[in-house]
Specification:
Blueprint: H1 2-24, E1 32-33, E2 36-37, H2 38-41, H3 45-48, H4 58-66, H5 69-72, H6 86-95
Antiparallel strand pairs: 1-2
Length: about 110
């Protein structure tokens, strides 16, 4: 039980850091999340929001190529709170020519 609580608290702190980074913009310190600078993840925002998002840009795909994709699975459940459709997010690697991670619960 304590391990789950600790993991949940860590997740909340990471998500809070990402939200603050997104709100404050360029003046905020980046958070490294799953081997990726959190500010660079914003390059993929258009490709994961809305009903029919546009294809990812080459800049977005470059970010995804360097990310630890299985690690990003851990944050799947919080994506809707950030306005991100989890299905779009999980489809992003394949749209960039990469193998999609096998996230638990898919």
């Amino acid at each position: 039980m304590a391990t789950k609580l600790k993991a949940f608290v860590q997740l909340v702190l990471v998500v809070a850091a990402i939200v603050v980074t997104a709100l404050v913009g360029g003046g905020a310190e980046a958070v490294v999340l799953c081997n990726t600078d959190s500010t660079k993840l914003n390059l993929c925002r258009a490709a994961v929001t809305g009903n029919q998002p546009p294809p990812p840009t080459e800049a977005c795909c470059a970010v995804i190529r360097h990310a630890n994709l299985p690690c990003l699975c851990k944050y799947k459940s919080v994506l809707p709170t950030l306005g991100i459709d989890p299905k779009n997010a999980l489809a992003l690697p394949s749209k960039c020519g990469l193998r999609s991670p096998q996230c638990p619960g898919n």
